[in-house]
Amino acid sequence: MSTYEAVIGLEVHVELKTQSKLFCGCSTEFGQEPNTQVCPVCLGLPGSTGVLNKKVVELAVKAGLALNCQIGLTTWFDRKNYYYPDLPKGYQISQVFRPIAAEGYLDIEVDGRPKRIHITRAHLEEDPGKLVHSGGSITTSHSSCVDYNRSGIPLIEIVSEPEIRSGAEAKAYLEKLKAILEYTGVSDVKMEQGSLRCDANVSVRPAGTTALGTKTEIKNMNSFRAVQRAIEYEVARQMAVLEDGDAVIQETRGWDENKGITLAMRNKENPDYRCFIDPELPHIQLTPEWIEEVKATLPELPDARRKRLMEEHGLPAYDAGIITSSLALSEFFAATLEKFPDAKLISNWMMGELLRLLNAQAMELSEAKVTPDGLAKLLELIKKGTISNKIGKEVFELMFKEGKEPEEIVKEKGLVQISDAGQLTQILTEVIARNPKSMEDFQAGKEQAIGFLVGQVMKATKGQANPGVVNTMLREILTKG
């Protein structure tokens, strides 16, 4: 057992889902040509002034409420001064002294154990530009270009208390946070596009103590799995440093996904950002009535929906947790349930076949060609006995790949289940003749022998025989002897 414990806090930067930037009308659309969505305001040119985007404030309040935060009635913007090529003004507009939301929490569960992670603050700020490196990362590049399209895009930075103790807890926290932000429509939370980015502050301390150790900040993590791996590596690295009698250096480190290690980027001892209230931007004044109006627009959040699926539809906690883990899965389930009222069966197919194929193809649900209506029709065919469950899985794969209706696939492939006794009698007779030992075993009281014979019939009919009918007919034939 280690004599040290990890102490981790996360800073999550979330791009808010607006069509224009924080202080100007430039588009926030992703993937456009570099430096084509800029103006004097977001480029920070001298003499340029902007106007606050009201939608940004609304989304930030919505996020804060969904994260159980207190919303500040009077807030303002501050200047955080530092130099970096992607920051044309020489300072970042942020909320250092008075965040729009604070003192919240988020509940997670790891290995069946619940835990509450407190949220220190959720504050508004503008995104800087983006450095486009010549190599794979900043540490392996000889040059970088700057794209200012992202400059001025509205962010909310969500800062947790240092209460996370492992990479697994960090991953669970991020997954829950992503789901909440997605459900509320605050952000599209697409990590691959940079609309959700995470930095991890990691330190270790002797087990049983309360003082924080010297922390490092890990950047450049592009997936939740990367966050978990980076934290696990950094914790082990810091423990090894301390066990060797050395001191951990406060610094910013980058995560190298290929090597699976963190690398020193720059020293961060006692940074001084010389923050002060922005003199050119007015304070934000909110009213309790307006905050209540925003609160009324909150949808059913993941935990509430999970509870409802368990109570109203009888889903096990695990199933309900998987289904509600993303808005897309939850909506797919709900749409299917409207057409085929068997929640557990739908859940089984989504967690089994749908997620299996999505994971195998590394696809998002939005990219799959199968629809809730298609799944409902497929389950109806199985329920009616038109096709077997095994054939249903084959049909589902074709629906997933081609987007065709299940009835069309069944007709094209000639997959209708054989339930007619006349058609099955000859097949059963031949199977029994080829397996006399199984017939003798069944007649001697060995019940498992019937299962083998049913399997042989299913094999002979390429899965199209109705297994229930086959089982009944076999018993009749074998009993008569």
From TrEMBL:
Catalytic reaction equation(s): L-glutamyl-tRNA(Gln) + L-glutamine + ATP + H2O = L-glutaminyl-tRNA(Gln) + L-glutamate + ADP + phosphate + H(+); L-aspartyl-tRNA(Asn) + L-glutamine + ATP + H2O = L-asparaginyl-tRNA(Asn) + L-glutamate + ADP + phosphate + 2 H(+)
SMART domains in the cross-refs: GatB_Yqey (SM00845)
Matches recorded under InterPro entries: Asn/Gln-tRNA_amidoTrfase_suB/E, Asn/Gln-tRNA_Trfase_suB/E_cat, Asn/Gln_amidotransferase, Asn/Gln_tRNA_amidoTrase-B-like, GatB, GatB_C_1, GatB_Yqey_C_2, Gln-tRNA_amidoTrfase_suB_CS
Domain Asn/Gln amidotransferase: 331-478
GO BP term (any one): translation
Keywords: ATP-binding, Ligase, Nucleotide-binding, Protein biosynthesis, Transferase
Top-level taxon of the source organism: Bacteria
One MF annotation (Gene Ontology) recorded for this entry: asparaginyl-tRNA synthase (glutamine-hydrolyzing) activity
EC number annotated for this UniProt entry: 6.3.5.-
Pfam families attached to this UniProt entry: GatB_N (PF02934), GatB_Yqey (PF02637)
HAMAP family cross-referenced by the UniProt entry: GatB
Function of the molecule: Allows the formation of correctly charged Asn-tRNA(Asn) or Gln-tRNA(Gln) through the transamidation of misacylated Asp-tRNA(Asn) or Glu-tRNA(Gln) in organisms which lack either or both of asparaginyl-tRNA or glutaminyl-tRNA synthetases. The reaction takes place in the presence of glutamine and ATP through an activated phospho-Asp-tRNA(Asn) or phospho-Glu-tRNA(Gln).
The family this protein is said to belong to: Belongs to the GatB/GatE family. GatB subfamily.
PANTHER family per the UniProt record, alphabetical: GLUTAMYL-TRNA GLN AMIDOTRANSFERASE SUBUNIT B MITOCHONDRIAL AND PROKARYOTIC PET112-RELATED, GLUTAMYL-TRNA(GLN) AMIDOTRANSFERASE SUBUNIT B, MITOCHONDRIAL
Subunit structure of this chain's protein: Heterotrimer of A, B and C subunits.
Protein name: Aspartyl/glutamyl-tRNA(Asn/Gln) amidotransferase subunit B
Organism of this sequence: Desulfitobacterium hafniense DP7
UniProt gene name: gatB
